[in-house]
Design goal:
two-stranded antiparallel ribbon, globular, 423 residues, 6 strands, 21 helices, mainly alpha
């Protein structure tokens, strides 16, 4: 299947984001924009790297954007994370190096050492927290700011290393129950609200389910490491524990399964949580969680669970109620992200679900860019209306990247989406 309309939009967006000087104004070229994978230059670099790897654009665009990021010192240590600073640049540079053998070797070795060193410091802090019998913060373990994000990067670069196994040991421990205010809660229960900050609406904290900020990302990383042959003691039990939690909170959307974005202490006490229609996005919701469960089922060799996850994803992507809750086109929680997840899931799906997932791609692509629409006008509109940036998670660069595989029927040529923990 080839969607010329979606592919045309991707190329048009890339053309409009070709020159850093033309895209980055004084406000955008802040330290945060320069170093943010989700909202700044590294994410835009990923678009040009992937297109160059596919032979659809020149490499000089990718090099220009990488140079913008590398032009000044990169943040490391406590102020960095997988989507900001040295680890964010390392992800983009590693994607380029996959297709340019020998390129950037010295820089990547230095970055790998820095990322591993930062991960060790985070693990040491987590161990102190565990010894103090305190609850974890979302930023300790999640895919964006925490050790799951570090694990996703290091799995690609140093899959058999001690640091990857140490992260896995930590994540296994995270699945062990804790006692909080006299209640038994899962080990990833956090005292904050979903934003990661104290929130009066969550006086007793919550257990976050999402792929971006919750246990869904941990499940995905445990599955991906197992599929690559790297496991820790208790690895399979940890996967089973998370799956049991998701089974416990699975709800019927009317068309298929759905999971709450988070669980509060009152819900934990009663075993019940009311849910209305919600968007089936990557960051939170059925699309991301179904993909994580599909990967876990493949790692376990559990055909029944794999089919259930695939059918759940298919139901979410064809449910008018859930799709009505999807109100933008972005990668993080919009239609482009749904198309990319569907494409990735289809490539691993059992028959006949694989074909059924591919069959929903045209509708998802059309939601972003209807056939017959002017790609130049659509690209200009997406770039001009993206607030606050044209970057990876919410902006035009992420939309363009997410459209590429479903539009062409060809998997990504680089590991650009490894940071999303869906492949």
């Amino acid at each position: 299947m080839m969607s010329h309309a979606a592919l045309g939009l991707t190329r048009e967006i890339a053309d409009r984001l070709a020159e850093p000087a033309a895209v980055l104004d004084a406000q955008v070229v802040s330290e945060w924009r320069r170093q943010s994978l989700g909202h700044g230059a590294p994410g835009i670099a990923l678009l040009h790297i992937e297109l160059a790897a596919a032979g659809l654009a020149p490499w000089d665009r990718a090099h220009s954007w990488l140079s913008v990021v590398a032009g000044q010192p990169l943040t490391s240590g406590a102020d960095s994370h997988a989507f900001y600073g040295a680890p964010a640049f390392a992800h983009a540079l590693a994607c380029a190096a996959e297709r340019l053998p020998g390129a950037y070797a010295a820089a990547l070795d230095a970055l790998d050492r820095q990322v591993a060193s930062d991960a060790r410091r985070r693990l040491a802090a987590a161990e102190q927290r565990i010894e103090a019998e305190e609850l974890p913060a979302l930023a300790e373990f999640d895919a964006i700011r925490g050790l799951t994000g570090y694990g996703a990067y290091l799995l690609r670069r140093r899959p058999d290393s001690d640091i990857v196994r140490a992260i896995l040991d930590y994540l296994v421990q995270l699945t062990l129950p804790l006692t909080h205010r006299g209640e038994t809660v899962p080990g990833w229960w956090t005292a904050s609200g979903p934003s990661g900050r104290p929130d009066d609406r969550y006086p007793d904290g919550h257990a976050n389910t999402g792929l971006a900020h919750g246990i869904g990302g941990v499940l995905a990383l445990l599955a991906l490491t197992a599929l690559r042959g790297t496991t820790a003691s208790g690895h399979w039990e940890a996967i089973a524990s998370i799956l049991h939690w998701l089974d416990r909170w699975e709800a019927d959307s009317g068309r298929g399964p759905a999971w709450p974005y988070w669980v509060t202490l009152p819900a934990l006490r009663t075993g019940h949580l009311s849910m209305g229609p919600q968007r089936p996005s990557w960051c939170y919701g059925t699309a991301g969680l179904a993909r994580a469960q599909q990967l876990a089922a493949i790692a376990l060799g559990d055909r029944r669970r794999q089919l259930a996850a695939e059918h759940g994803l298919l139901a979410a992507l064809t449910d008018p109620q859930q799709l009505r809750e999807t109100t933008d086109n972005g990668l993080c929680h919009g239609f482009a992200g749904l198309a990319h997840i569907a494409s990735r899931a289809a490539s691993d799906a059992l028959a006949p679900t694989a074909g059924q997932l591919r069959a929903v791609l045209p509708a998802l692509l059309s939601a972003v860019h209807p056939p017959g629409s002017d790609p130049a006008g659509a690209a200009a509109g997406l770039i001009q209306t993206q607030e606050p940036d044209p970057g990876l998670l919410d902006g035009a660069a992420g939309i363009a990247l997410a459209l590429l595989a479903p539009a062409t029927g060809i998997p990504p040529r680089t590991s650009w989406d490894a940071c999303l923990l869906i492949a």
